[in-house]
Amino acid sequence: MKIAPANTLRTLHVLTLLSHTCLYQHLTATVTTTTNYLKLFSYKFRTHTARVSRAITAQPHAQNHRAASSHETEFKMGEKEAVEVHSKFRSEFLQVLRSRRTTQVPLTVEVAKPVTNRLHQNSPPSIDEEIMKSCPKANIENLEDLLEEENLYLTIEEGEQGRLPVLILSLKESHKQKRRPAVVFLHSTNKYKEYMRPLLEAYASRGYIAVSVDSRYHGERAKSATTYRDALISAWKTGGTMPFIYDTVWDLIKLADYLTQREDIDPSRIGITGISLGGMHAWFAAAADTRYAVVAPLIGVQGFRWAIDNDKWQARVDSIKHVFEVARDDLGKGAIDKEVVEKVWDRIAPGLASQFDSPYSVPSIAPRPLLILNGAEDPRCPLAGLEIPRTKASQAYREFHCIDNFKFIAEPGIGHQITKFQVKESSDWFDKFLNPQTLIVKL
Predict the structure, then answer these.
(1) How many domains does the structure of the chain reveal?
(2) Is 228 a residue whose pLDDT tops 80?
(3) Which residues span the domain enclosing 150?
(4) Between helices 338-348 and 321-330, what is the axis angle to 10°?
(5) β-strand 147-157 against 163-171: which pairing, if any?
(6) CA-to-CA distance for 403 and 416, rounded, in angstroms?
(7) Residue 366, in any domain of the structure
(8) In this entry, which stretches build a coiled coil (predicted)?
(9) What is the pLDDT of residues 293-334, one digit of tens each?
(10) Is the predicted pLDDT of residue 97 greater than 90, yes or no?
(11) CATH number of the domain enclosing 76
């Protein structure tokens, strides 16, 4: 099957740094196209603040009316400026993503077979699977019989990494119902799309189209246990690819092209989440592509520049240490230091520790609903390094009069690990904003 390219184109022992609830209204496209690959959206929200403003302007007193009009003018200016800043960020980020692309080809879809031999790259199975199984499920007795599985390849560009493996779970006969919300789930380092299956099954049971993909150099896109490591080292030496975050973000833009054209998916209700590296992929994909309407990265959001400036980069570097060791030797250093770290980031992910870092990319997700879930003791995502992006994001959501759409939670006593609490909170977040209506299917 071939499809045409897409048209040109928001408690409980938990430290909640920013927590609100909100009223959400369906999305409408109002911003004009700026690229050939992406349709930028401005989202209209119905908030308590907006209703209060209307009540004030309805007062008969001219002074109140002038004050309210002045407030509304200031709000509109702030919102307009925010849209311009976010659009500029996306334009610059997309330029970098395109800068190392191989030849583009028409987006095509090929039916694939389920994967039987799953490849762990230097990383044995962890307890994450049991935690993911705690995700809320609909009470459907014969759920396994009702699940429909699709295995696909999307061809998005030339080259061995240009074929994107996709796994989709949904309830059978859902295509006969109205369009459903979808959520994309992204795995962590050295894992694969099938690893996310417990979450896919849980969300599918609740009426979602649940989607997962293999990140670049992972899963079906890996040839050996060192494929990802080798790709990082090659990127450092040649500058030919961007295997850390960026190339997979490009894949997720192309995935959005496909998902928005499916007849069973509501294109205005597509969410994205991920764990660790997958959380980074979700965060940057949402910053780059506004078609991801609801976002919930887990243990992924961090401050790369802050970590360098405050000598807190070690834990993140250790997660992909081989490339930094090679860079250390190439630069004639006796040890990995902040200069080595900065040069590696600039080489394999340009702008990651500067103009595309979290203080700039996280606010660009506004006003779409964004839940950031981290561990308060996570050395890879130091909490202090998120104070600036959290503050800037809060300001951005205020400019859109939708502060309720942003929530940041740092779970006390938790390091770099997912928890049942995080799984439940993110599940509730998607249910709240994407509002699925679970299908009761009888075969």
Answers:
(1) 1
(2) yes
(3) 15-434
(4) 110
(5) antiparallel
(6) 27
(7) yes
(8) none
(9) 999 999 999 999 999 999 999 999 999 999 999 999 999 999
(10) yes
(11) 3.40.50.1820
CA 61 to chain centre: 47
pLDDT digits (tens, 9 = 90+) for 12-71: 333 333 333 333 333 333 332 333 333 333 333 333 332 222 222 233 334 444 443 443
Q: 406 in a domain, yes or no?
A: yes
User: 380: Cβ–Cβ under 8 A, 6 or more apart, which residues?
Assistant: 276, 299, 302, 315, 316, 319, 416
Whether 283 contacts 246, CB under 8 Å: no
pLDDT digits (tens, 9 = 90+) for 206-222: 999 999 999 999 999 99
- Between these two residues, 195 and 41, which has the higher pLDDT value? 195
* Nearest residue to 369 (alpha-carbon basis) of 268, 219, 260: 268
Residue 429 domain flag: yes
What does the angle CA 16 – CA 19 – CA 22 come to, to the nearest 5 degrees? Answer: 160
Q: What is the pLDDT of residue 17?
A: 39
**Strand (E) or helix (H) holding 209:** strand 209-213
Token pair, residue 349, equals 């992910």
281-285: list long-range contacts, CB under 8 Å, 24+ apart.
281/186, 281/215, 281/245, 281/248, 281/249, 281/252, 282/184, 282/186, 283/358, 283/361, 283/362, 283/365, 284/93, 284/245, 284/246, 284/249, 284/356, 284/361, 285/249, 285/252, 285/253
Longest CA–CA separation in the chain, Å: 75
**Residue type for position 194:** E
